[in-house]
Amino acid sequence: MTATLRRRPLARTAYAQDMALLNTNAKRIAVGTLLLATMALPFAAADDILLILTLGMIAAVGAIGLNLVTGYAGQISLGHAFFIGLGAYTGAILGGNPDGAVAGYGLPMWVWLPAAGVIAAIAGLLVGPVAVRLRGLYLAIVTLGLVFIGDHIFRNARDLTGGAGVGRRGPSLELFGIDFGTSGVWLGMELSRNQKQFFLALVFLIIFAVIGRNIARSGVGRAFSAIRDRDVAAAVIGVDLTKYKVMAFAMSSFFAGVTGALYYAVIGVFEPAAFGLLLSIQYLAMILIGGVATISGAIMGAIFITALPRIAAEIAHIMPGITESAQGGGLLTVFQLEQILYGALIIIFLVFEPRGLFGIWMRIRNYWKGWPFSY
């Protein structure tokens, strides 16, 4: 047996080996290399690029959450913006300035950040039972209604949100005595504000990516997949539809709440208009372009969509007829070009590469694994 294993080093003799997160040497080396390269990136990239990557990694946490309910459990949700907004305002209220013009309690980050996820998860628990009775387009319309309900509440609860056109500041980013909102010495190194926030976002992304991957490969994840593929058949084999659909919405909402609180703490100032239908569409674009039902795809899609405004601005520099002014004056504004790119990319990926950026990566990987053979 030992001699056989020596000749076949990838042979697995236990379920634990097959189910491990990094079950091959190639995966362990690739992940380690990627992590080292990512940790070195803040010392080589400009501050504006670091901010885009930081926001992209935070948005990836919300994209992973949406992938759990839509990609893995098959429950189409257009209400992700509502849960993100709920988390953002929960974090801002609990961690906000007690002496400010709007409500704030000045609680530390280790309180307001998980609380933002919990409040959003409670809202998800209330929506979950509706998903048991509805599916497909009907469920999408119901979750879309959450966005408009949230927009009304966020605009009119001025004592909490500051109101439309005014907004409020996010909570301070200070954890375990480290102020991530200012430059300073950390771990013996002089780091800028953007560098410190990059590392903070990286840590949170790793934590939630591992949580999301463990959910997907657990019994809960397999129940989600059974419901997605055919809920009637899943019920026949003993999957409790009510339980798992509610769990999917609660987990997704928790991820969204944490994303909202952390994202807008980095942004600094936000208002109710930020949590409209466009934000839900952006998160759907993240998982469609990145790859449905994949954790890696959600991360790739989130970073790509977050960088899209910068990509649109770079296109505007080299293409005539596109102006960066919101007042127009050209054939298109950068904002209009950005919306066109959203739609075009979703159509292109759905038609030509349904597995998204993750599918492209899989093609490249499989090609080199079999090279120089074509089979």
Would you kindly provide a brief summary of this structure?
This protein has 375 residues and is mainly alpha-helical. The protein is 69% helix and 5% strand. It has helices at residues 2-7, 15-19, 25-40, 47-72, 80-95, 109-133, 137-156, 158-161, 193-216, 219-229, 231-236, 241-267, 277-290, 295-318, 334-352, 356-370, and strands at 168-169, 174-175, 178-179, 184-186, 189-191, 269-270, 322-323, 332-333.
Calculate the terminal CA-CA distance, rounded to whole Å. Answer: 29 Å
Helix content, binned percent: 55-70%
**How does the helix and strand content classify structurally?**
mainly alpha
Mean pLDDT over all positions: 89
Tell me the Rg in angstroms: 22 Å
Q: Estimate the strand proportion.
A: under 5%
Helix tally? 16
The total of beta strands comes to: 8
- Order of strands in the sheet with most strands: 1-6
Shape: globular
Helices and strands, in order, run as HHHHHHHHEEEEEHHHHEHHEEHH
Which stretches are poorly predicted, pLDDT < 50 over at least 5 residues? none
Main sheet: strands, sense, barrel = 2 strands, antiparallel
